[in-house]
Amino acid sequence: MKRVKKIKASAMQYVLVIAVVIALLIFAFISLIFLHQKMTLKYRYSKEAIHNTQIGFEFLKIKESPYNIKTELPFWESPIAKTTFLKKNWGIYDIGIVASSVKNEQFQKVGILGTQHSKRKALILEDNNQSLVLVGNTKIIGDVLLPEQGVKSGNIAGTSYYGNQLIYGSVSNSADNFPKIKNLEYLKNFIKNPTIVEGVPFELEDGLELHQSFFEKTAIYQEENAIYLTNISLRGNIIISSKTAIYVAASATLENLILIAPKISVGKNFKGSFQAFATENITIEKQCVLRYPSTLMLLKNESTESNSAEENSSQILLSEKSEVRGIVSYISEKETSNFNAQITIAENAIVKGEVYCTNNTVLLGTVYGSVYTHNFLVKKAGGIYINHLYNGVIDATILPKQYAGLQIEKASNTIAKWVD
Prior knowledge:
This protein has 2 domains: 103 residues, no CATH class; 297 residues, no CATH class. It is built from 3 helices and 33 strands. The protein is an alpha/beta fold.
C-alpha cells in the first residue's frame, strides 16, 4: 500500500501568494489597459470638442446669425457631439461664444467680432462737389473713392504739394458710395440706455481689481456725477456709465471694457484698451496708446445739437504722439455747415484702423488703414481750407489683412480678439 505524500502547509502558502500576485498583476494590467483606453477616448473627445469649436467660429464667418439666441450648428451627425453658438452686441463690435460637447467633454471659446474687408479703400471722401486738394508732405497710398471733381495739388501759405504723384492707387467716383454703419441704430439706443445689456451692478472703489469674464453677465456701474478712474484695474465684460463725464488716469488699468459719458478724457501716458462712447467730446492727451480693438465714438443726436456753442466744441481730439489701434468715429444725425473740426488727429498721432466722420476731419498725423469722411479741413495762416489735406498720411497697405473693425456692408463675423 502506497503512502500519500503530504504537501507542507508552507508550500501551499507560497502557491497562494504567487497566485494572488499573478492575479494582482493581471488586474493591474487590465486596469492599465482600461485606463489607457479611457484616457485615449477622453483625449479624442476633448480634441474633437476643440476642433468643433473652431469650426463653429469659421461657420460664423459665412453665415448671418441672430443676436441673443443660442443656436445649434446643423452639420454634426454624431449623436454624442453638439456645438452651439451665441452672438451678442458689445459696443461697436459683437461678442461670439461657441460651445462644443462630445460625450462628457466640453470646450467653449469667446471672441470679439468685427468686419473684415478683403479690398480695403484708403479713402472714401463723400461727394460734396469739391475736389480733394493735397498740400505739403501729404501721401495717400491705396485705392480711393473721390467726388467727381477728383484730386489736385494746392498751396497754403507758400507750401505746395511735394509728392511725385497725387494718389498711389486707383481713383474712382464716390457718388452714392459713402459707407453706412450697420449697427448704428443699436449704438444710439445703447448709448442712451446701457442697461439694455443684461448685467449685474458693482461698486467702484479705490484700488479695485475686477476681471469679469465674458461667459458671465456684464458688470455695470452707473453714476450721475463725474467718474474718475485712477489706481484701478478693470478687465473684461464691464460697462461704466456717467451722466456727466469720465476721466481716465494713466494709473488705471483698463482692458476690453466700455465707457459711456457725454465727455470722456484720457490722461497723458495712458496705455490700455476700451470702447469710449460720448455725445459731447472725447479727448486723448499726449503719448497715450489705446490697444486693439479700441474705439472712440462721438455720436451726436438731435437733442445735443440744439446749442451752437456745444456744436462748435464737439469733437474727438487725438493729441500728439498718441495712438489708437481700432476705430475713431464721429457721427451726426444731421449735416452741419460749421467750419470746425469734428475729428482732429494731431501731428505725430497715429490711427491703425479706421476713421469714420460724417462731418469735418483734420488729419495732420497718420492713418494706417481707411478714412471715410464728409470733408477734410485745414486751418492755417489765418485761413480755413475745405477739403484740403496738409501733411496728412493715409496708407491702407500697412494695416494687417486680419484687422476686423466697423460693421460695414456685411455681418460682423471675423475674430478681432480672443477674450475670456
